[in-house]
Amino acid sequence: MSFSEYDLESWTELVTTLHTVTVHDRSDERLAYEAMANVWSGSGYQSYNNLPDAVLRMLIAATEIGYAAGLNDIRKGDLDAEILQWRPDIADQ
Q: What is the SS3 assignment for 32-83?
């Protein structure tokens, strides 16, 4: 299966838009990038440098979107009950 340059550009634009609306500040962007780097380095897959640049940037941005969305949920309190289940020790602080 092959994809056109137009397809790739459309996907890249979509991911870029999602990144823009999800990653709200520079510190979140840094945290998301560091988390993405940790996940990727721990995956054991070392052939990322063989990917076309546009695809690599899109994958990095997509991974950062997921992390930033989680940060946003935590900040809104959407996961408070779950966090207390996972980390009951912080309830006493």
A: HHHHHHHHHHHCCCCCHHHCCHHHHHHHHHHHHHHHHHHHHHHHHCCCHHHH
- Find the helix or strand (DSSP H, E) in which 12 lies: helix 5-22
Whole-model pTM: value is 0.76
Residues with Cβ < 8 Å from 54, sequence gap 6 or more? 8, 9, 12
pLDDT along the chain (93 residues), means of 10: 85 92 88 87 68 83 92 92 90 72
Q: What CA–CA distance (Å, rounded) separates 29 from 48? A: 21
